[in-house]
Prior knowledge:
This protein is α+β, with helices and mostly antiparallel strands. The chain is 18% helix and 31% strand. The chain has 6 helices and 16 strands. The strands form 2 sheets. It has an 8-stranded mixed beta sheet. Strands 6-7-8-5-9-12-11-10 form an 8-stranded mixed beta sheet, covered by helices on one side. The protein is globular, with a radius of gyration of 18 Å. Zinc ion binds at residues 8, 10, 215, 217, 262.
Amino acid sequence: MKLDGIHHITAITGDAAANVDFYTRVLGLRLAKKTVNQDDPSVYHLFYADEDAQPGADLTFFEYPGAAEGQAGIGMVHRIAYRVGSEEALDFWRARLADEGVASERDGGRLRFADPEGLGFELLAVDVPDAPLVADHPEVPAELALQGFHGVRAYSTSPQRSQELLEQALAFEPSDDDWTGESGWEARGTSRGGLYSLDPAPHDRPIPGAGTVHHVAWNSAAADHEGWRERVIAAGGRPTPVIDRFWFRSIYFREPSGVLFELATPDPGFTVDESLETLGEKLVLPPAFESRREEIEAVLKPLPYHRSAAPRS
Ligand code: ZN
């Protein structure tokens, strides 16, 4: 039983309109689902993904309008790494980000930058067997596009505290990948792999807010989902019951360094209620919320989004 890398990563934004602009127009991702936070339907939950909206490339944001910027500290993810196909892609992104006024730092086969609210990113030119998960965008050639997640880095005061749960319960393997550093693991299943790295924590206290990661979800086959939950409990974790998120099913728990983990299933996926062609174009509510649509729409600011993708050749 193995987890198939990262399913999705969820962060916080204070400005949904600016967030859509940066992730779709600038980074070239596809808005794959425009919905609301199921735990607080007065705010948006936006999902950016590859063209087919698959687990592994799915970055999501809760909007808290006007939220102050936070700062990653102990127990928080501080950087998200995306794969790209080549060093040429890093040159392309460095120039494209500079055109948007976004500073970046090149370090060999890596390019680091932050989104407009300070969320840390790294693009890595890596050679992995996993299929590239790419979205279509008229200004981003497919061979230079983001290819899905490589891993996340979080801050921990004591990575050893996480080791048992990660290795014994979640079957993460210690990683000797250049990127992971001293305390790094890989969750690699039959379809994909994803890395998890724990860095020494800064003195700064954690401040959740705009530009910080809320949780990271790992991809669990539906048949294994309850089994993972039992293993987490056996390792001393305290997972939630299985929660039906309509597009996937989830359990949540904190790993011992404090990072909120989710285990999410790939099924049924984002096309269960919209066609692949029109994903993201209108506000979609899970059936349990549909009766409250009028009330929900009255509170949300309209969020214009026009797909600018080139037709697939
Ligand atoms: Zn999630």
